Amino acid sequence: MPRSTSVVELDPIQLPSPLDHQQLRDVASNFGTSRGDQKSQSTSPESHFLPSLEAFRAIAIVCVVAGHAIGSTGWVIDSPIEKFIANIILGGTNLFVFISGYLFHHVFKNRYTYKGFLQQKAQRVLVPYLFLSALPILMAVQNDHPAGLPGALMAYLGHLAKGDVWICYWYVPFVMAMFALSPIHRWFATLPAKVQITAVGSMLTIASITQRPINNIGIPQLLVYFTPVYLAGVTAAVHRQRLMAFLSRHHVKLLIGAVGLAIAQAILATNTGSYHRAFGSIGNIDLQLIQKILMCGWLLYALQWFDQHNSKVVGLLAASSFAVFFIHPYVIDLWLRTWKLHAFLSGGPALPAAVAIILGISILCALAIRKVAGKRSRYLIGW
Fold it and tell me: What angle do CA 331, 333, 338 make, to 5 degrees?
């Protein structure tokens, strides 16, 4: 199984409706919330369930899967147009982190306790990670050829702490470190708007220079890079009404800015997608980070459409998002190792089909596990 370098027969399953709060009350995601959480934690207008936030979650997981599916299609990105398309698709983790920060304030502002918050994260994020990472870590330890049982144990713990055995499992150790800093995020939410905006802008400048670590391995550098994105989400949630009024006048400018940065990166930069470098080194500005921040603002405005329109597909994608996050690396690995479907689906034009297949299989696997394990599935797949 690659490290990061970048048939169960079921009875018919009724897909959940996006407004079925009781069925989804226990749904967990890496954003730390569920429909039930949003519904029950407060009755104030600013903290009620918003379908637009679920649509944001759905887009975030589709972008993450699409970014990882590029490699499974063998798409060689050469032309400026191909680079532009890839730049729009890649960097989906920024959407994950932004909506995570947004929902941290939106959901927990009236019922936050540090112990309870971390316990929930341990149950719904860390425990599934311990379960689903076990097999790839054991295979990685076998490849490491450690000396004796103590060496094997140290190698196992090392891989577990770094999350370096799958294309996206690095996110869990990082996000648990982010969750551990939640008292700082709570304090940040109480600061004046000007202070928040200035702080986020300053940290984004530093992050765009520091950039993501090589192979996404290195929690301190990941915290430097993603904290301003998380806090931008917190700020957006704190000032939602004022932000929406602003976006109603400037959302087109944000979209033009995001598209323009993707074009500029396609023309001027040698790399595609997010920038990576060793911690402490200085280089060019990470255009991908700035592009995704602008895209987050535009999505908050554009996705308001879903507040008035129901979509079972979007609801299912959002509800299963973290389960898909955990499962899709297995699907991609089997795709490349066993099924060889990429021989029939190859190149950029095949990407939509590949994404649909990977998402579909991942969701079906998640539904099957939920069918068999019931509520205990949250400890296995986070849903």
Answer: 95
What pTM, to 2 d.p., does this model score?
0.86
Q: Is residue 301 within 8 Å of 55, Cβ to Cβ?
A: no
Burial of 269: CB neighbours in 10 Å, binned 0-12, 13-18, 19+: middle
Residue whose C-alpha is closest to residue 56's, from 256, 311, 259: 311
pLDDT tens by residue, 254-279: 999 999 999 999 999 888 888 988 88
C-alpha 297/C-alpha 362 separation (Å) is 29
For the chain, how big is the Rg over CA atoms in Å? Answer: 20
Structure tokens of 128?
């599934």
Higher pLDDT, 9 or 97: 97
Number of other residues whose CB lies within 10 A of the CB of residue 334: 13
CB within 8 Å of 219: residues ≥ 6 apart: 173, 174, 177
How many CA atoms lie less than 13 Å away from 278 in the CB half-sphere?
1
Report helix, strand or coil for 212.
strand
pLDDT in tens, 287-311: 999 999 999 999 999 999 999 988 9
Burial, 364: exposed, middle or buried (Cβ in 10 Å; 0-12, 13-18, 19+)? middle
One-letter identity of residue 380: L
Contact 273, 90 (CB under 8 A): yes
SS3 label, residue 253: helix
- Per the DSSP assignment, residues forming a β-bridge with 212 are 276
Whole-number Å distance between alpha carbons of 71 and 81: 18
Phi-psi region of 91 (alpha: psi -120 to 50; beta: other; left: phi over 0): left
Measured CA to CA in angstroms, residue 239 lies from 19, 138, 233, 251, 349 at distances of 25, 46, 10, 16, 40
Strand-pair partners of 276: 212
- Pick from 279, 285, 281, 283: nearest CA to 265: 285
At 276, the amino acid letter reads: H
Cα-based distances in Å from 328 to 32, 185, 363: 20, 30, 9
Query: Among the listed ranges 46-50, 236-240, 249-253, which one has the minimum average pLDDT value?
Result: 46-50
Note whether 179 and 38 are within 8 A (CB).
Answer: no
